[in-house]
Amino acid sequence: MRGQDIQRDLFRLVDRISHEIESFTDGLSDIEKNAAGSLEEWAPRDVITHLVFWQEHFNNKLSNARSGKKAPSAGDYLDQVNDGVFIQHAGQTFSDAKRELNAALKRSRQLLQEETDEELTAPGRYEYLGERTLLYDALGTIGWHIPFHLSDYTIKTGKKQAAIDLQEGITTELSVFPGWEVNAVYNLACFFAQNNEPEKALENLRAAFKQKPDLREWAKQDSDLDSLQEHPEFKSLMQES
């Protein structure tokens, strides 16, 4: 990719994600929007408040690092953090949650626009990133995390093909970014494995391993692929070099 191509494609992806959020919320009934979920079974409002928290977390990490402050960390207690978000926002209206998500995503775009292409793709630009790039972190938070939860709820309401269309479309968009070509395909394989589509999962795993053979070691212990463990083709794929 050259020059402005990184920013161009990144903000095109952000626009696509914004569109998917609108499509998701527009497709909900008033009953769904007003539903009260549980810690085990999130309602749409809970999905949105969860996304707000993590999008704001992304924004806070970046803005703090820029100003020389310590970037906040969620540590290793994601389940406790997510449960806490659910409880804290149990009384929030769906419309307020959606407004907050739109605002958080807009803020992310503003922050990322202040970075040059070189800064977006420089490994370890900020301490909290470790060896990762800011682009990598942004794609994970915006390009993978948001569609994952939209698809998860969509699947649970019986609209499987709509969730597949979303995942496949986002995979295509993520695949143009350096460092995410393999991630996107591998994550799509995990999505299919978790949603009773073994042949599509294996097809995408095969493509991911072709680009990055050492992914096999990660796949061997990845619980997202548990449904494939006894599949003969999966066993064969794990043994290939």
Strand and helix map with partners:
Elements: H1 5-26, H2 30-34, H3 44-66, H4 78-88, H5 94-113, H6 117-120, H7 134-156, H8 160-174, H9 181-194, H10 198-211, H11 215-219, H12 232-239
Helix pairs in contact: 1-5, 1-7, 1-8, 3-5, 3-7, 7-8, 8-9, 9-10
Question: What can be said about this structure in brief?
Answer:
This protein has 241 residues and is mainly α.
Give the N-terminus to C-terminus distance in angstroms: 30 Å
Helix tally equals 12
Total domain count: 2
- What string gives the helices and strands in order? HHHHHHHHHHHH
Main beta-sheet strand count, sense and barrel state? none
Q: How much helix, percentage-wise, in residues?
A: 55-70%
CATH class bucket of the largest domain: Mainly Alpha
What is the beta-strand fraction? under 5%
Tell me the radius of gyration.
18 Å
Q: What is the CATH topology assignment of the largest domain?
A: Four Helix Bundle (Hemerythrin (Met), subunit A)
User: What sort of overall outline do the alpha carbons produce when their principal axes are compared?
Assistant: globular
* Oligomeric status: single chain
CATH homologous superfamily descriptor of the largest domain: dinb family like domain
Please state the second-level CATH architecture of the largest domain. Up-down Bundle
What is the total tally of β strands? Answer: 0
Q: Look at the structure and give the mean pLDDT.
A: 93
Q: Class by helix and strand content?
A: mainly alpha
Unreliable segments of 5+ consecutive residues: none
Can you walk through the features of this model?
By secondary structure, this protein is mostly helical. It folds into two domains: about 5-160, Four Helix Bundle (Hemerythrin (Met), subunit A); about 180-240, no CATH class. About 70% of the residues lie in helices and about 0% in strands. The chain has twelve helices and no strands. Helix 3 packs parallel to helix 5. The radius of gyration is 18 Å and the shape is globular. The model has no long low-confidence stretch (mean pLDDT about 95).
